[in-house]
Specification:
single chain; alpha+beta; 2 domains; five-stranded mixed beta sheet; 14 strands; about 30% strand; Immunity MXAN-0049 protein domain-containing protein; Imm11
Amino acid sequence: MAYYLKLMGYSDRANPWFRWDNEDDYRQYGSKAIGFSLGFWVDPRAFPETAQQARKKLVHDVFPMPRCNGVSQRFKDLVEEFEPGVHQFVPIKLRNKAGEAYEGNYYVFNCMVAFDALLVNEMDRDWEYHNATDGPNLALFRTSLRDRIVVSSPRIAGKHLWTPLYLGPDYMGVFCSDAFQKELVARKIRYLDAKHCEELDIPWLPEENIQPALDWEAKHGIPCGYRAKLRAEVLKKRGKLEL
């Protein structure tokens, strides 16, 4: 089994209500609204370094931060047990409402594995075309956590954490293996929405699942969608997407 994990930003209990100290500096690098992950390298300078709580709230192992996320050392240790040295953890320093520093290590987490595994023909959704304000209409596959989500077992074999490229419930969450989800529960790392995904023993083929996006890119000569565009920019600048 696989699961789709998403921050519980809507929950007052899950939200520790931090505010970045250097929000103006942060904005200079543009909006890095990565949610729970982007799937490829992000310049660490794009993230603020320190934050203070606006309310007196508990800080959990995984929690929303403005435009991104925060995770504890416990969460980082779990990720490293499954996929050591693969994912990005940007250190941040946190203070409570009174201005006192929290002990322990905290990070912004960014999953660095990205690929598509959804089986479009097995789901009750199809590709759509939406108006874009600054270019041609986009080919998009839209689904949500309320929908039935089906993934290819061969495609995800041996993987524990990954983000989607073209196919995802909202593009800001992370898929995980059953083994990883079980450890989250066993270690009581809470406050993540976890959507169970069905697995079918069907090979994942691009022509059967993302052909509309590939056709769109071939026609217009540019990446299809914001995430694909940003990913291409990072690859051109760094020559790689990994750490």
